[in-house]
Amino acid sequence: MVTSYHSTRNKGIQAGAREAVLTGIASDGGLFVRPDLGTEKADLDRILNQSYQENAAYILGLLLPDYTEEELKQAVAAAYTGTFADKAITPLKPVGDLHVLELFHGPTSAFKDVALTMLPQLMSIALQDTEDSAMILTATSGDTGKAALSGFRDVDRTGIAVFYPEGKVSQIQYRQMATQQGSNVKVFAVRGNFDDAQSAVKQLFLDEDLGQWAAGQNIRLSSANSINVGRLVPQVVYYFEAWKQLVNQGVIGRDDKVSFSVPTGNFGDVLAGYYAYRLGLPVKKFVVASNANNVLTEFITTGVYDRNRPFVKTISPSMDILISSNLERLLYYMTDGNTEQVAAWMQELAETGRYEVTPEVLERIRSLFEADYADDAATKEIIADVYKEERYVLDPHSAIGYRAGLAKKDDTPMVVLATASPYKFAQDVMQALTGEELGEWDALHRLQELCQDPIPAGLAALENAKILHEAVIGVPGMKEAVQGACSLVKNGETA
């Protein structure tokens, strides 16, 4: 085994890429990172002349060195053949003064599909080295849950349990999860917010009793959140693809830089961009776009990360997050791999809810990252403005990214990551566009009159789909829920 990864908190906790994908999170609660990230640069000329699928296999090969070239080609073919509505997978479109990278053409109409059609393939390959099965535990603020459920549905030797905050996802997001079919899936609403669910899932991975119990069933607990490196690295590909499309469209030259505005809560999507930068992508800056839960904006501005603030329920629920897990990986790289310092900050966060980085680290972060945020009123305003001026409909998350991109744009072309279809948030989008308060299905059909694309088939089918998952539990009940869900994958077979 090539031990190419280790924990952000302890260099002694090591794993190969396959093991990192299977494990999800390190045994000390840290996240797996490549200490040599960027030592080998991507061949940009090669990327310019390859398809999305070819680039995906190539870039994943740079990041997951103990997967073979043939294994990655097979995984890419399985993930991206017939699963995305647009043949480009992630098409780039000019919208006003910015360029919008549409990441929502997958089966669940969210950017998570790009990675969560791939992760089951990577995990299945890694499981071949063992006699174990995998139980995927995932906390979601809305989009990850459905994308993970769709990706892992009826996958051999795998089960999945998804936990979402009760009443804090959109109606469409709720229906996507609650109607999910599959012999190996469980969905639970959790009383509390996303941070409560995410923190509890992390603790379950560190629960020795649960781990030993699962091991006795030949089951490995893993994650489909972006804490799992197998979920994170497929997202690196579309940053190169955005640059490739800009070059091939004649917008920039081969050596010109590009900037990205990324709506984010958990810091995973923008971190994938940073990985692309480390691999040689010519990037001038990343704009971190937050909603009213603007803990990241404050951090990038002041160097203080402080989650001790009221949790705000917004119309961009996938960003309603106060603990941005993947920021830990950035801190590792911005301290030149100082795991002791990262561990100390994470301990301080756990104990006090805050930490403050050194002025030197903040300066390094601010040399590449800027930040902005928008509350619901500003989000609705930009949705309406962009439609009025460009006849283009943004979902609330993408609108926040667009607004931040406009605010921070300079002479460098700015790419906005559009992370979800507006149809997933049709009620709020229509309210922004018309002022009307419509029911979810009326809003969906009214929105079709305004959008460039038809209602995605997966969303249209929800109207008459049967609710299959109605369980509501408290955080203390999550461990028992996981043990019950593990029955779906006993003996190495899905039930």
Automatic annotation (TrEMBL):
It is an enzyme of class 4 (lyase). GO terms for cellular component: cytoplasm. Its cofactor is pyridoxal 5'-phosphate. Residues 101-359 form the Tryptophan synthase beta chain-like PALP domain. Its EC number is 4.2.3.1. GO terms for molecular function: pyridoxal phosphate binding; threonine synthase activity. One of its GO terms (biological process) is threonine biosynthetic process. Pathway: Amino-acid biosynthesis; L-threonine biosynthesis; L-threonine from L-aspartate: step 5/5. It holds the Pfam family Thr_synth_N. Residues 5-80 form the Threonine synthase N-terminal domain. The modification N6-(pyridoxal phosphate)lysine is found at K112. Keywords: Amino-acid biosynthesis, Pyridoxal phosphate, Threonine biosynthesis. It catalyses: O-phospho-L-homoserine + H2O = L-threonine + phosphate. The keyword Ribonucleoprotein does not apply. Catalyzes the gamma-elimination of phosphate from L-phosphohomoserine and the beta-addition of water to produce L-threonine. Belongs to the threonine synthase family. This is Threonine synthase. It comes from Faecalibaculum rodentium. The lineage of its organism: Bacteria, Bacillati, Bacillota, Erysipelotrichia, Erysipelotrichales.
